[in-house]
Amino acid sequence: MLASSYPFWDVMWTMLVFFLWVAWFWMLFGVWGDVFRREDLSGWGKAGWLTFTLVFPFLGVFVYLVGQGKGMAARNVSAQQAQKTQFDDYVRETAGTNGGGAADQIEKAKGLLDQGTITSAEFDSIKQKALAAA
Fold first, then answer.
1. Structural domain count of the chain
2. Which end of the chain is more exposed for a tag (fewer CB within 10 A), N or C?
3. Rounded Cα distance, 29 and 31, in Å
4. Residues 43 and 107 grouped into a single domain
């Protein structure tokens, strides 16, 4: 009987209000995150934006989005690029620590064989171990 006391359009209205409430907080936290990540804004500027968005929540967030929207997007893109560069550097560094793979190990062993440091049997053994590990 509970469902009959809460009509369909009331359910739809409640869902819309809840969605807008979640979207509002998402925007608010996005603005706060951008304000605190900015390096070109002083501490007083950050405190001012925070106060503005707390005292006049809707007006503060919308003013920030209109005035700083392009800068916000540029800062997000540069942060993502920096994170990707850092990840790529980490992958290169980590991949290079294990000997460089089978081809690199065989190439080093071939150099040792050519120098006469190892025998042909040792070269074949290193080559087979490198290919088995790959």
1. 2
2. N
3. 5
4. no
